[in-house]
Structures are given as C-alpha cells and as structure tokens.
Amino acid sequence: MTQDTINKILQFRDERDWKQFHNPKDLAISISLEAAELLEVFQWSGEDVKCTENMDKIKEELADVVNYCVLMSDACGLDLDEIVLEKLKRNDEKYPVNKAYGSKEKYNKLK
C-alpha cells in the first residue's frame, strides 16, 4: 500500500472528525467485525472455496479490514511497513523454507 493511499484513508477520517472515536480498543473491535463480515462471504459456500461469484463483496470487506488496520496503526503510532517487515522476519525464522515448504504444519510441528 502506498503512502498516498494511507494518507487518503486518514484524510477521509479527518474530514469527518472521526479520529476522536478511534481508540485502539474500538478499532480492534472494528477490525474483528469487518473480518467476520469477510468470513461471512464464505459461509455455506460448500465446494466453492474461492467464492468467485462474490468477489465484489470480498473486495469490499477486505478493504474495510485494511482501512481499519491503517487507522489502528495510526492510533498506535506504528509504521505499517516496519511492523510487517518485522513479522515477516520472525515468520521466516519460525518457518524456514527447507522445513515449511509445501507444509501446512504449525512451526512447532515442522520436521
């Protein structure tokens, strides 16, 4: 995500004076609620695990999750690039390619 996109999300919030309502607790709740709405797209989808007919709804709900994540990072003073890269580094250590390649096992069960 570009800084320009992040700035547009923050500008949208600021133009409406909503920052006053965006504390970490409420933003975490909102992320969870929007993620549940994304999950709802897949409910009762049977064999259609991609839900290609619902791609518009998937895009809409995923955008809501991402928007709230941007707002949460702003509320907490966190740099998204920094925290994502840190997490990738930790995951790389937990899931080395030679052990995790093609495996769905959790890191503590890799052989």
Describe this structure in a few short sentences.
This protein is mainly alpha-helical. Helix content is 66%, strand content 0%. Helix 2 packs antiparallel against helix 3 (55-76).
Descriptive overview:
By secondary structure, the chain is mainly α. The protein is globular and about 50 Å long. The mean pLDDT is 95. The chain has five helices and no strands.
Unreliable segments of 5+ consecutive residues: none
| Mean pLDDT across residues | 95
Please outline the major beta sheet: none
Helix content: 55-70%
Count of separate DSSP helical elements: 5
Alpha-beta classification = mainly alpha
Radius of gyration: 17 Å
Inertia-based shape? globular
Beta-strand level of the residues, as a percent range?
under 5%
Number of strands: 0
N-to-C CA distance: 35 Å
Order of helices and strands: HHHHH
Task: Walk me through the topology.
Layout: H1 3-15, H2 24-42, H3 55-76, H4 80-94, H5 97-100
Helix pairs in contact: 2-3
What keywords describe this structure?
mainly alpha; 111 residues; 66% helix
